[in-house]
Write a structure and sequence with these properties.
Blueprint: H1 3-13, H2 17-20, H3 25-34, E1 42-46, H4 54-59, E2 64-69, H5 72-81, E3 88-92, E4 104-110, H6 119-128, E5 130-140, H7 144-151, H8 165-172, E6 176-183, E7 188-194
Parallel strand pairs: 1-2, 1-4, 2-3, 4-5
Antiparallel strand pairs: 5-7, 6-7
């Protein structure tokens, strides 16, 4: 898998992303509860796409949302949709090398992990962006099996497959205290607190 292929794939998908995207409010609510996305939090949304989770963050009265995505088309759409919301900023950036002058209470990687070339280095990078006691969550709003089935189609050349939660747990533990590990028929999530 090559990063340029990932960019091209999601640039192509961006115009119809919102129409094709299926969300489950109950599952997203559980994911964000586990991630401790609460009132007053500064949130970094990695691979934010068109801003699928933005309304969920705002309903929780977060202080700010910084969404980043490697696809410039996804970013253009998200920025346009949320241009009147002062708490949201959207940047075209590569999460593997993203730096920030600020740190975050919560970092969320939602429905995106299989599209990262090196998940291990991603976890290390994101941990540096957390406040002490801040939380990193990697989650999917479907089962691991469902995600892998979905990626066997047109997305197979831009997906590494979704690793087991046990493997992701092992990537988290040198940097984070893991307190949530879920892989069931409805969702996939690993959450950890910065040590």
């Amino acid at each position: 898998m090559h990063k340029q292929d990932v960019i091209a794939f999601f640039d192509h998908c961006a115009p119809t992303w919102d129409q094709r995207n299926v969300t489950n409010d109950a599952v997203i609510g559980r994911i964000l509860d586990n991630a401790h996305v609460t009132a007053g939090a500064d949130v970094l949304d990695i691979a934010c796409g068109t801003g699928v989770l933005f309304p969920y963050y705002l309903r929780r009265n977060v202080a700010s949302v910084t969404g980043i995505d490697i696809s410039s088309r996804m970013v253009e759409i998200a920025a346009e949709k949320w241009r009147h919301e002062d708490r949201i900023s959207v940047l075209c950036a590569d999460a593997d090398i993203f730096t920030s002058q600020r740190s975050y209470d919560a970092i969320v990687v939602y429905n995106a992990l299989p599209h990262f070339v090196n998940p291990s280095s991603l976890i290390v990078r994101l941990t540096t962006l957390l406040k002490k006691g801040g939380r990193l969550t990697v989650a999917h709003g479907a089962s691991r099996e469902a995600i892998d089935r979905c990626h066997k189609g047109a997305a197979q050349h831009v997906s590494n497959g979704l690793m087991s939660v046990e493997s992701l747990y092992r990537l988290f533990t040198p940097h984070l205290h893991v307190d949530t590990v879920i892989s069931d028929d409805t969702m996939y999530q690993v959450c950890g607190v910065k040590k």
